[in-house]
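User: what does the whole thing look like in 3D?
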Amino acid sequence: MANIGFIGLGNMGGPMAINLVKAGHHVTVFDLSAAAITTLVNAGAKSASTAAQAVTGADFVISMLPAGKHVEGLYVTGEQPLFDHLDADTLVIDSSTIDAKTAKHVGSIAAERGIHFIDAPVSGGVGGAVAGTLSFMVGASESQFDRAKPLLDVMGKNIFHAGIQGSGQIAKACNNMLLAILMTGTSEALNMGVENGLDPKVLSEIMRLSSGGNWALEVYNPYPGVMPNAPASNDYQGGFQVDLMSKDLGLAMDLSEQSGSATPMGTKARDLFNAHRDKGNGGLDFSSIICSYQK
Ligand code: NAD
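Assistant: Here's the predicted 3D structure for the full assembly of 295 residues, as structure tokens:
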């Protein structure tokens, strides 16, 4: 069983760390929130009073933080940069969703010190984190991927090797841009049908089983009452927040600028989600974008 330092015990990191404890690993945790640490200690983890203490002697370090500046701060530029506290050959798995540029930059600083740093952002939301069924998109060398996979298997179901360092973050940005486009398109079509007199359940079923079928219609219908377990039927509580979708679309737009790629649909989806967020809906599930279409 491995010695793991786990930093960032929020909505995602908390349940991911619990699954590692349940699998029998020795997990030492740190978060800025004392309550988050207590939850993990109650689940069988060991607490640390600083991030540096949590990673001392660890074979693996896993981080699950909000954004690139937190990841760079933790490992490189903060008061106690973790790269100063890690043994050479430690494997660091950063599962935060951050920009590919920062992931590559932090990875290259790690490499200079003989530390392995790989990007492994996830898809599947809080439900997937709790159930241990996340998808991981990994940017790493072949040998780094092979070393990380047994741990990722504990927290996820589909573990993809996207390519070299930074590739996991690029795959994640592409996927979430497509998800945003699918959700806005599905909302637009459903709303138009309902405003023309159709029953949302009947229209959803027609489109789900016809050529417009997609993930939103399969498992995440944005119209209230169509799927009892979807956030739409629970006042858009829980799920994946508009704030996080806006953040991910910002990362996708940065990427499209860097490569000069045409993303007219992604740009439109970004604008729609940002306008929805700016009206005070940042804390709602992202399927609430359908409300911005309703009269
Ligand atoms: P969250 O805000 O619930 O958790 C982040 C945690 O990091 C907090 O507990 C915070 O206290 C801690 N933290 C921040 N800076 C720290 C530091 N320097 N040291 C120690 N702890 C620190 O966020 P989340 O929902 O768990 O998301 C984490 C990452 O996963 C984000 O990058 C997000 O985009 C991504 N993600 C989230 C979801 C989702 O559905 N929530 C899905 C896929 C990916």
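In plain terms: The chain has a mean pLDDT of 97. Strands lie at 3-7, 26-30, 46-47, 60-63, 91-94, 116-119, 122-123, 134-139, 156-163.
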